[in-house]
């Protein structure tokens, strides 16, 4: 029979494991976050790329939190921002902004809390939105690699840091554009994307990444911008696009599951963003949404025919009740709910353990 003290210890441990997250004021459990991807993460890199036409550096972007445009494609913070705050780190700045400050000598060195390399509109495939001047994932990795090789980031910090990676929705959306010239079948196209995923993981591991979080695509076929596509329905989600995203996600999870075996010393988690978002759509009232179909800010059918902030746009009075902020991107509140699910959610939301466990080395 166990002693009463050991029973109490077990009870206390169970309470700890099932208690809600408390964000302590103690020092962060990891030193930095390095972020790669697209508009889900972009903190303003495109704004500092004057050759890029994919922009959100004008009102009313940023209006709900920063009270000014920051280059983020939402009304406030992104998933990367919320994860930083949960950990207790200052928000990471865009690489291109930091690079300008270094060149201008208004900044002596790159900050120790990490760097955001993400570029809205980019994808895993080099041709995705190339005409818009976005920074593809390969170039983002090259930017990071250059800093590592120049010893502008301490290698000891890199191994203790969290790496966030999310991309691919622009690749899949663009597959269905009427002027898309690819001759690849959907399966071959997904294969090409996943080839780049494997190369990305291989490269960040070689550069020192050991704690890696890779997020699935959401239901891309549900974004209001589908109204721009001649063959997409507007009274329901675009099934063929979502089927392609789900196929990619299944294969992506297999890759993530192999990381600890293929890369000694690395640990990785798979954020099931598709499932998280699908629950918001299926049970909107449970999550405080009154609209999970239309853009809060935009114009035309679904608010998806015009970018938020462009001439003739309309904006809702209650962005917190909308799942979508603009024709393609979630509201800050959606990102907050998504971030909480990834931070302390169960295995339906993120697996094999959540970001809180990954950040604190508690892999229960």
Describe this structure in words.
There is one protein chain. With 364 residues, the protein is of the alpha/beta class. It has one domain (33-288, 329-361): Rossmann fold, CATH 3.40.50. Helix content is 37%, strand content 10%. It is built from 11 helices and 10 strands. The strands form 3 sheets. The chain has a 6-stranded mixed beta sheet. A two-stranded parallel ribbon has the order 6-9. Helix 2 (79-87) packs across helix 10 and helix 4 runs parallel beside helix 7. The longest helix has 24 residues, at 239-262. It is globular. Residues 1-27 have low confidence and may be disordered.
Structure summarized in a few sentences:
Belongs to the 'GDSL' lipolytic enzyme family. This protein is α/β, with parallel strands linked by helices and 364 residues long.
In the CATH hierarchy, the third-tier topology is known as Rossmann fold
Chain-averaged pLDDT: 92
- Globular, elongated, flat, extended or rod-shaped: what is the shape? globular
- Low-pLDDT segments, ≥5 res: 1-27
Order of helices and strands: HEHHEHHEHHEHEHEEEEHEH
Q: According to CATH, what is the class?
A: Alpha Beta
Residues in helix, %: 25-40%
DSSP E strands, number: 10
**Main beta sheet:** 6 strands, mixed
Quaternary state, please?
A: single chain
Structural class of the helices, strands and pairings? alpha/beta
Assess the beta-strand content as a share of residues: 5-15%
Keywords: Hydrolase, Lipid degradation, Lipid metabolism, Signal
GO molecular function, one term: hydrolase activity, acting on ester bonds
Signal peptide: 1-24
Protein name: GDSL esterase/lipase 6
């Amino acid at each position: 029979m166990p002693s009463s003290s050991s029973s109490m210890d077990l009870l206390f441990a169970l309470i700890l494991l099932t208690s809600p997250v408390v964000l302590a004021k103690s020092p962060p459990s990891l030193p930095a976050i390095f972020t790669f991807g697209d508009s889900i993460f972009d903190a303003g890199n495109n704004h500092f790329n004057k050759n890029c036409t994919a922009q959100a550096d004008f009102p009313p972007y940023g209006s709900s939190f920063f009270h000014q445009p920051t280059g983020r494609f939402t009304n406030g913070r992104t998933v990367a921002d919320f994860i930083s705050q949960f950990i207790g780190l200052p928000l990471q700045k865009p690489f291109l902004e930091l690079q300008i400050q270094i060149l201008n000598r208004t900044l002596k060195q790159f900050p120790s809390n990490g760097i955001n390399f993400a570029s809205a509109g980019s994808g895993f495939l080099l041709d995705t939105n190339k005409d818009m001047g976005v920074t593809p994932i390969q170039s983002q990795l090259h930017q990071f690699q250059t800093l590592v090789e120049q010893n502008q980031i301490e290698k000891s910090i890199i191994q203790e840091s969290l790496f966030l990676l999310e991309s691919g929705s622009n690749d899949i959306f663009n597959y269905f554009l009427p002027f898309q010239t690819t001759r690849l079948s959907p399966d071959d196209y997904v294969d090409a994307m996943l080839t780049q995923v494997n190369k990305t993981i291989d490269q960040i591991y070689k550069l020192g990444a050991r704690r890696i979080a890779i997020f699935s695509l959401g239901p891309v076929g549900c974004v209001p911008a589908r109204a721009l596509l001649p063959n997409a329905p507007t009274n329901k989600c675009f099934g063929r696009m979502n089927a392609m995203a789900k196929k990619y996600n299944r294969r992506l999870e297999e890759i993530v599951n192999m990381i600890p075996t293929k890369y000694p010393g690395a640990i990785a988690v798979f954020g099931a963003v598709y499932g998280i978002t699908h629950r918001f759509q299926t049970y909107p009232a449970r999550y405080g949404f009154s609209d999970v179909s239309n853009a809060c800010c935009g114009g035309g059918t679904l608010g998806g025919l015009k970018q938020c902030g462009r001439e003739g746009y309309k904006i809702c009075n209650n962005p917190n009740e909308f799942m979508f902020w603009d024709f393609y991107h979630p509201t800050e509140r959606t990102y907050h709910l998504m971030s909480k699910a990834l931070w302390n959610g169960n295995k339906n939301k993120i697996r094999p353990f959540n970001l809180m466990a990954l950040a604190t080395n508690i892999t229960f």
